[in-house]
Each structure stands twice: as structure tokens, then as C-alpha cells.
Amino acid sequence: MPGLGEVSTGNGGVGVERPAPGEMASTVAHLRAVTRRHSARFERSIPLIASENLLSPYAKELMISDLHSRYAEGLPGERYYEGNEDVDEIERVCLGLAKRLFRCSFADVRPTSGTVANLAVLKAITETGDLVGTSRLADGAHISSAGFGAFGLRGVKPVYYPWDEERMTIDVARTREVLRAVRPKTCLFGLSLFLFPMPIEELRPTLEEIGARGWYDAAHVLGLIAGGQFQDPLHEGCTVLSASTHKTLPGPQHGILLGQTEDAELRKKLESGAFPGVTSNHHLHAMAALAVSLAEHLEFGREYARRTIENARPSPRRCTSGGSTSSRPTWDSRSRTRSPSASRRRGVARRSPHGSPPRGSSRTRTSSPATGARRTRAGSGSERPRSRAWAWDRRRWSGLPSCSTTSSTRGRPRRPSPTPRPS
Ligand SMILES: Cc1ncc(COP(=O)(O)O)c(C=O)c1O
Fold first, then answer.
1. Is the pLDDT of residue 345 over 80?
2. DSSP assignment of 291-353, as one string?
3. For residue 323, what pLDDT is reported?
4. Residue bearing the CA closest to ligand 1, atom 1
5. Does residue 260 fall inside a structural domain?
6. Across residues 300-321, what is the average pLDDT?
7. Residue 21 has what DSSP assignment?
8. Of the residues 22, 57, 233, 234, which has the maximum number of CB atoms within 10 A of its CB?
């Protein structure tokens, strides 16, 4: 028997270094402290990248429910095991809300992320070797479209849409020529980085002419679409939409498939693309939280999406006027006041006109594999008061009891205390 801290070669000869006395407890304590530090930082500030958002307390509450540890393979009423009645009910509500919010005939809430949703679509509507229209990574496409991403996994080949550098969108006339010449079976629209709606309506006659199916990856713009502030791909010519549910739609990290089709075979293919194609367990806690977020978006979505756009506008303005290349915005989303002194009073960090970080800021930089663009996450030196978008109109929350992720005692969500309580 080896002593503590020594390598055991028992149990089939697999060597595992045994923990020292107290090691597990101190590791757990360390992880809890670091996580609390992280959470406290995000309670005080909104140092988000464009792919991130905040989750409402009611959605968060379901993320830590028992659903987290369960399985429910199949669809509501057609599970592979007993005991899924409650999950069935939650999933039915989630599917109904999704179809209502996006005014569409099909939904599947089992993909566990946007990338997984893309894989499900590829599995459902393409064959290995197919040509699929898409944009280049350099023009803003997600790595899903790359040979080293989902396209490569499925073995489909990209046909790139020509790009109009001036207008910063797809060059419609040249794309028509390419599509007629190459005739891909599927055409993917929607990007990671884009400022303008994709010209789906303009290209729709060409898609119909060559018999291609339109597919939209709405990972970044899902909440804007639901809020009526962006194009509506399922009513402009795309039959299938895939997305993440945690960006402009402020839901949990999860994925979704939507469709505007009465084609029963296509629906079946999409469902089997999701399961068993790319999921087994579909993260029931996140699916339940998504249902909450969809209900919230039905209530707040229009205003939320309008404000998302309103808040985004100052950033490019400052980038062009100040010569900055950083994606870190500097406005206080709760107020339109731009006065530097007002900003200072609120603790809003200012930046130099050249985009250098304010004194004392700590920032981490990551390189986006999709674009090569450098993204900047502001550190504690540039923290700002956090926007509480979900609490715009508190009257709309009345009647809901407080939930376990808030300290509220008055039946409405409140920001949890930024100071971690001792365990
Ligand atoms: C257009 C697009 N599709 C898919 C994804 C992947 O989403 P997820 O991180 O949920 O897998 C992203 C991520 O930002 C994206 O920009």
C-alpha cells in the first residue's frame, strides 16, 4: 500500500497520485473562492464580449435545479425512459414559446449550443460532399463554416459568396452568378460579425431557381429577430434557423433550431439531427431556463432589442471618431449622459482617444479563431455599473414570488449581494 502522496500502481496498473490530507477540501475552497470572485466582478460590472449576456434570476434558478442531473432522450411523450412527465411539460412549454416568439411552425430546443445546432442542421439537410453556400471567415462567418469546424466534420464544401467591401455585406449580383454556376443545395446566411441584414429577399429568387434551401445562423441576432429589430429570416426565404440562445437573446448557454416549413420529412430530419444526431442528454436545466427566457422575451423582447441596438450605436461612433480598434464600449447603458464628469462620478472608465486602456485597468485579450480579431475584456479597472435590463418595468414582475438566486423578499428580482457570504 503506497503512502499518501505516493503513486499507486494498483487497480490495473493505472498510476494516480493520491491527494495529500486536506488537499480536496482546500482545492474545493479555492475553486469556490475564485468562482465567487468572478461572479462578484460580474455583479459589479458588465465586461462582456459580444457573445455574452446576463441571465435573469428566474432563469438562473432553474439552471441549478435537479434537472441538471437528468436525462430525457427523445421528444415529449416519446421518451426512452419513465419518469419524464415534468420534463415533458417543461419542454412542451419551451417549444410553444419558441414557435410563438418566432412566429414559426417548427422548433427543437435540444441542441446544447449554437455550434451543436449548426451540426444538427448539417446532419439533417446535407450529405457528405455537398456544396454549401456561405461567407468567408474573413467576411465575418463563424468557424462552423470552416473546414476545421462543423463544415469539415460533416464533410461539406463551402461555396463562398462574393463580398462587397464598400457596403460591408454580400455582393448580391456577383453572388447570383456564383450560385447559378455552382448550384449549392443549401445556402447559409448569418454571421458572427455583421452590421447589416443579409440580402435573403434579394437572393430568394435565385435560391428558388437553383432549388437551394436557405438556412440562417442567428447566433448573434436571435434576440433582435425576436424583438422585431432585425431581419426575419424565416419569413424572408430561409426555411431553417439555428442559433445560440445566450447572446442578444438573454437566455442560458444553449442552442435552438427553428423552422418555417410544413414539410414533415424535413422536420423529422431536423429532429433526428438534434437527437440522436448531435445530442444524447440535452441539458434539461438549460432547456428549462430557456423556456423562462423565451417567456421573458415575449414580455420584454421588443424593448430589450430596441435598447440593445441603441446601446450598441455609440461604440462604432467612438471607434471612428477616436481611432480606436478596441471593441470595449465606454458608455453607461443606464443613461444617455455623455459628460465625462458624470461618467467619473459613476465610476465609468474613460479611454484615451487612441484606445489605450485607462490607467489601472487590467485587461485580458483573446484572439477570435473565427476572425483573428482581437477581443478585449475589460478588467476590474474599467468596471461600470451593471445594466439590469430585465428589471426595466418592475410592474411586469409583480405576482412572481422571489427566487433562490435573488435576495428579494418582495416578490421581484433584485441584484444579489456582490459580497460573497461565508459558507
Ligand atoms: C454565427 C455564430 N454561430 C454559432 C456560434 C457558436 O455558438 P455557441 O458558442 O453557442 O456554440 C457563434 C458564436 O459566437 C456565432 O457567432
1. no
2. HHHHHHHHHHHHHHHHHHHHHHTHHHHHHHHHT---------TT-----HHHHHHTTPPP--T
3. 55
4. 192
5. yes
6. 88
7. T
8. 233
Residue with cell 432563469: 59
CATH label of the domain that carries residue 217: 3.40.640.10
Q: Let me know if residue 341 belongs to a domain.
A: no
Q: Is 174 contained in some domain?
A: yes
End-to-end CA distance of the chain: 36
User: Is the minimum distance from the CB of 219 to ligand 1 under 6 angstroms?
Assistant: yes
| Choice among 119-123, 134-138, 154-158, 335-339 with the minimum mean pLDDT | 335-339
Q: Whose CA is nearest to atom 7 of ligand 1?
A: 114
Cα–Cα separations (whole angstroms), residue 379 to 34, 40, 346, 350, 363: 15, 13, 17, 13, 5
Q: Is 199 helix (H, G, I), strand (E, B) or coil?
A: coil
Instruction: Report in angstroms the alpha-carbon separations of 234 from 6, 104, 222, 272, 320.
Output: 61, 7, 12, 21, 34
| Mean of the per-residue pLDDT values of the chain | 81
Is residue 347 assigned to a domain? Answer: no
77 and 86 Cβ atoms separated by less than 8 Å: no
Q: Does residue 51's CB lie within 6 angstroms of at least one atom of ligand 1?
A: yes
**Domain count of the chain?**
1
Pocket test for ligand 1, best of 109, 142, 279 (most atoms within 8 A of CB): 142
CB atoms within 10 A of CB 58: 22
Model confidence pLDDT, tens digit, residues 29-77: 999 999 999 999 998 998 889 899 999 999 999 999 999 999 999 999 9
| Spatial CA neighbour of 380 closest among 30, 36, 42, 32 | 42
217 close to ligand 1 (CB < 6 Angstrom): yes
Amino acid code (one letter) for 396: R
Residue in 245, 185, 255, 187 with CA at minimum distance from that of residue 221: 245
**Residue 341 confidence (pLDDT) above 80:** no
Q: How far apart are CA 377 and CA 39, in angstroms?
A: 15
| Structural domain range at position 292 | 61-297
What band does 313 get if pLDDT is binned at 50, 70 and 90?
A: confident
- Looking at residues 210-215, what average pLDDT do you find? 98
Task: Compute the average pLDDT of residues 258-276.
Answer: 97
Q: Whole-prediction pTM value?
A: 0.79
Residue with cell 441538471: 68
